[in-house]
Amino acid sequence: MSAETAVRLPSIAFLGAGSMARAILSGLLQPGVVVDGGIRATNRSAANAAELDALDGVTACATESDAAANRRAVVGAKIVVVAVKPAMVPDLLREIADALEPGTLVVSVAAGVTVATFESLLPSSVAVIRSMPNTPAVVGRAVTGVSAGTRSSDADLALAVALFETVGDVLVVPESQLDALSTISGSGPAYVFLLIEELTRTAVRKGFTPEQAALMVQGTFRGASELLAASDVDPAELRRRVTSPKGTTERAIAVLQEADLAGLFDRATDAALARARELAAGA
């Protein structure tokens, strides 16, 4: 990435440094991304904070050894990423509320915590964006949904999009769609891993060793995904190209379609959506 096309972001503070925050951090530290004013991070554990502090461009401290760490981290930060566990969010917001500077953009990656909750606990001079990244962020292949708050501007939204584009693709959706998005892209990697698990077991039952089965199945999923990414046609057309009339694949596809995969995925994602709503209601 050339200097002319470098992504430039203002100073950022991460509150909470679990796997998702670390994935986003890795995106910010790649060549071609410039964070003016640097990156700060807080974490409960001193050992984890020390690991983060060793990264170039990151200043980290632990809340277990510095009770004011979160408040100090947000002073002067233009973007504050709230990445603690959802149950910890309200107390954290109360803790930092009066330390945030007017115009700060607070970005939530806390699943199930609404924009309304954030806005009710933060000053009116602070904008909120809610996000839903997924785990492929770790390898720079995330799909992240972002939703504007009632106080956020187009510039705030663009800033959040630029932040998450460092780890993959971004969809801007209304907050009312964010839970539904989570049932597709958020939970989606688990669906893919389940399919890989089951097809691998099938290969073993066909007489292949576990190593051979893993090579076949994982290579096939990777290859099919890369073929789709490189193609200018949709997956239905790619499937048709593999499915010769009256051939072996056609027989297998017929069995899969008899299982009503469309209905199965509808029911599975509906169940996930119902649970997301329960969690949002505190159940």
UniProtKB/TrEMBL annotation:
It is found in: Cytoplasm. One of its GO terms (cellular component) is cytoplasm. It comes from Agromyces tardus. NADP(+) binds at residues 15-20, 83-86. It holds the Pfam family F420_oxidored. NCBIfam families: proC. It comes from the Bacteria. This is Pyrroline-5-carboxylate reductase. Residues 12-112 form the Pyrroline-5-carboxylate reductase catalytic N-terminal domain. Pathway: Amino-acid biosynthesis; L-proline biosynthesis; L-proline from L-glutamate 5-semialdehyde: step 1/1. GO terms for molecular function: pyrroline-5-carboxylate reductase activity. Keywords: Amino-acid biosynthesis, Cytoplasm, NADP, Oxidoreductase, Proline biosynthesis.
